[in-house]
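pasting for the record
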Amino acid sequence: MATIIQPQVLRASAIPSVEHFIITSICTNGNSILIATNIGAVYKADLEARSVHKIAQVGSCWKIICRDKLAVLSSLNGEIHLLDSHSGAIVQTIKAHNASVRCLEFLDDQAVISGSKDKSLRIWALKNDSLEQRKTLTGHTAEIRCLFADGSLIISGSLDNNARVWNAETGDCTHVLQGHTSGIHFIKKDGNRAVTSAEDGYIRVWNLTTGLCEAVLDGYGPNQVRVAPVYLVRDTLFTGTKNGSIQSWNLNELPPVGSVLSAALENLPVDLAVSGSTLVYGTVAGAVYSVSITSGEFVRYWEGETRARTIFRVGFSGEKRPVAVYLQGGSIHVAIF
């Protein structure tokens, strides 16, 4: 039976009073959570010191990734910033694209890849805490909204309704994954499979050897404001559903066999993450749920002071504790479970 828990909640000092303040991205950096916002303020939640404070300001920020003390931030003005997350110093700022940089990932320990509204992908060599452009990948005909990068393989999703598979060494596009009728917002990969979730309300499962679609699954359905989040762990796909539940799909079966992993909640999951045997997700109504992916049972949940507040991002601390980041009362809150 699920346990109602009260997490530790860390609060930042009051944030600027601006309209449409959004938490756009988070990343775990040891015992800290770095938090990016659309107005360019970057916050650090120190889980040991139990504090949240602003460490940097850039023009805007849509995605943040981090490794060791180095954080990389993408901006809506086409810039990419390198940040020392310990000191808060901006190490480098480059004009990376001619339009917004919506997605950013590490390709490996020595390279970063960015995707932009200018329809291009760019691979950057990371040397001595600085970025140098290595390659430009073109082929998409609209804004690139999501990326997956894994060593020599890159998968990009675009508002042109297609995903593309790229060889990172040569820059060649090896497959165009066609089938969605609206823009793609989520991509996940594990092994030889990839999954995409799009504005058309559907989730597609792809074979990366053939480039063919193996299955089409229901997401949130068409004409919805949000796109269903997805997470792929080996042969199991986890998706949000339009009735507020989390669905688990066995991809070893074609068509995939689905089972409900959590009860219908009547509010949509907006973000989900998996670590080990635990899945955590946040909802538009401000609830946070933790589910065992082995038993399919709720482990714990929280509907406390966030109720009626959207959980912007969820993840795990360096100690694998679930965390949720949200806004309330004019400040950023980080809940640690």
